[in-house]
């Protein structure tokens, strides 16, 4: 006689560290909000604290859901999302509200409210992903479906997309618009992780020799060339330099993590520089970006305007910043930096919170990197390790890319600052990524082991 | 300087202090985690996950932490006792030498397989590879906690 199947009971598990960190998040948001509203109203005031309270209640709600679910999830990621999202909210409430206006029926929502909406939706997505995803086998099993989906998205944007700021990024379906390239990054990371986990032993072996560089069999090099091709296609067809750069660097990093072979990185970098040099010569928009980066003062009121303004913003901020609400001049109610809420949000942080605030934001991404890589190092199998590493790199490299671009260390490539910039696609995608990392961090769940045990876990979820 | 300016300044600095208090607490958590990971690090250098075992020994679905030398076979003195008609009493040896895993077939039973390919006498294996003895299949995986990445 068989015993009754053990049922997975929801045994609440306290999360003291998370709660403690969330308390500090609440403290910081309170101080930030009072500082902002006092500066704006010219007297001590708490203004209309509804957005900040909503955000903090949202965090508390997710925390309680995690406690009830009883999963052994990482306790640092949620507070870090809380502080980044909170800073995002403060800045979106503070920037000129007219930057984004959307109508839903007879209601008109402006920048701050819209961002609050996206952040709360993102938080919900994060919570649901972290609690409900207990096995990632299906992700691995459908790897070629993901690859096809990614290529399909790319094609859809090419056929149906609209051109904004010289880049074909956004797509409108009915009343909704979104930037599929945000989701594309995640889909390709899933595919790459599955592909590399499958073929790692082959890739790590070398059969061809080119001078001092040893290469794997040609058949296994093709996906590398294919990824390079997709990146090139992104640049040429969609003019989306940021996504291309991010995709290719994540791919190189994952390849190195999977094989520990420096020669791949060398080959990849050579491919990158060859591609970059050719594109610089052939494509006008690539050349324009690089030229602005090299000398924005060549056209200070035209092409170089935003970059110069961002540099001045960092300069005005100094070490302690001008304080929330006290910086960022507007010209006739319009922000001096037109993309201050998306690409240049780091310049806003640098001006109003100063060097210290900018460093704090940078440190938050470093913490995300440490946590993500740790989750990867402890993962029970190759696929989950590569998946966790890839998801972490998507966020961290993107943050590094745009922060460096704001500071004119690299050319501006038009990606968002994860979890801070305004934008539904960006917020939701990054929330999904952090939610998946949280799910992968739970080592008590039965994952990666064969059928019988997994079936128990699945039936318990259902 | 009037009082309000002073209050505003204090609020600004207060916000920054809160940010750094948060970071300090997080870094302390990360540091403690690292310390505890080092002190509780498992002595094992890898794990074998039992993918299939029709006769239930070792039990399918279990994860067995292994040391640098692991013997496989039907005899009770093996590190991992594998029960199967095609498995000899001393069937094979899995060792971690230098920085690589080596699988040695003692040639007493049916040839072992790595990822479905029969092994002649000895071969190197990697994390993620599947080792087959008779109808029993074991997957080599990295240990949960690793001191040396």
Give a brief outline of the structure:
The complex is a heterodimer of chains A (462) and B (149). With 462 residues, chain A is mainly alpha-helical.
The biggest sheet of chain B amounts to: 6 strands, antiparallel
Distance from N terminus to C terminus of chain A (CA atoms, Å) equals 25 Å
**Major sheet: arrangement of strands of chain B:** 2-1-11-10-7-8
Largest interface summary: A-B, 53 and 40 residues
CA-atom Rg of chain B in angstroms:
26 Å
Name the helix and strand elements of chain B from N-terminus to C-terminus, one letter apiece.
HEEEEEEEEEEE
Q: Which structural category do the helix and sheet elements of chain A fall into?
A: mainly alpha
Described by strand count, sense and barrel closure, the largest sheet of chain A is: 3 strands, antiparallel
Please indicate the percent range of residues of chain A in DSSP E strands (runs of 2 or more): 5-15%
> What's the Cα radius of gyration of chain A?
23 Å
Distance between the termini of chain B: 56 Å
Helix content of chain B: 10-25%
Shape of chain A: globular
What form of chain B results from the Cα inertia axes?
rod-shaped
- Please give the number of β-strands of chain B: 11
Low-confidence stretches of chain A: 1-6, 446-462
Q: What is the multimeric organization of the chains shown? A: heterodimer
Helical segment count of chain B: 1
Please provide a written account of the structure.
The complex is a heterodimer of chains A (462) and B (149). Chain A is mainly alpha-helical. Helix content of chain A is 66%, strand content 7%. Chain A is globular, with a radius of gyration of 23 Å. The two termini of chain A are 25 Å apart. By secondary structure, chain B is an alpha+beta fold. Chain B has one helix at 3-39, and strands spanning 46-52, 63-66, 69-73, 80-81, 92-97, 100-105, 113-114, 117-118, 122-125, 130-133, 136-141. A 6-stranded antiparallel β-sheet of chain B has the order 2-1-11-10-7-8, with no helix packed on it. In chain B, a hairpin with a 2-residue loop joins strand 7 and strand 8. At the A-B interface, helix 1, helix 3, helix 7, helix 14 and helix 17 of A face helix 1 and strand 1 of B.
